[in-house]
Amino acid sequence: MSIKKLPMRSGVGVIILNDKNEVFVGKRKDNPIDKWQMPQGGVDKGESYMSAMKRELFEETSIKSIKVLEEIEGFYEYELPKNLVGIIWKGKFRGQRQKWFITKFTGNEKEINLNTQYPEFIEWKWISADDLPKVIVDFKKSMYLRLLKKIKKFTNLYL
Predict the structure, then answer these.
(1) Which residues does residue 27 pair with via DSSP β-bridges, in sequence order?
(2) How far apart are the first and last CA of the chain?
């Protein structure tokens, strides 16, 4: 089957802002070079985007203390590079089509625990939104640049 005939995986992503409007990023366990990303993941059959976002966030970070500030309109997509198609997601998908949310972290940082049942991140940190395109893997960079516009438009309201 050609790559273009593979479907996109349905997913969610979550932008977590702290009280300084910095963004939470994690370093992936399966790509431990100096690349970081915001929490994201798949949507289970019959699951709402909101439920999937909260589940994925908890599964990856143990975070439950959030206030949802905005469900970003539309969807954001990225395609896997050819060398990863067939490896990631058992070869069933060519990329992800994601619904993104902007949230505010309302808890204590002690709540953040990457040692979960199925760990995906090995480290985490807060960074300036402007640094997001500098830390993400290349194949997600254009999506992060589009998300950055939404983040900045939003965070400028709460400076």
Answers:
(1) 36, 123
(2) 49
* CA distance linking residue 134 with residue 110, whole number of Å: 27
Give residue 46's pLDDT: 96
Output the domain CATH number for residue 118: 3.90.79.10
pLDDT (tens digit per residue) in 84-143: 777 777 778 888 999 999 999 999 999 999 999 989 999 999 999 999 999 998 899 999
HSE at residue 129, side-chain half, CA atoms within 13 A, is: 20
Q: What region does 110 belong to: left with phi over 0, alpha with psi -120 to 50, or beta? A: alpha
What is the span of the domain harbouring residue 93?
3-158
Predicted model pTM: 0.91
One-letter amino acid of 108: N
Q: Check if the beta carbon of residue 144 is closer than 8 Å to that of residue 127.
A: no
49-73 confidence digits (pLDDT tens): 999 999 999 999 999 999 999 999 9
Q: Do residues 88 and 144 touch, judged by C-beta distance below 8 A? A: no
Instruction: Work out whether the CA dihedral 46, 150, 159, 28 comes out positive or negative.
Output: positive
Phi, then psi, of 119 in degrees rounded to 5:
-65, 135
Please tell me the total count of domains within the chain.
Answer: 1
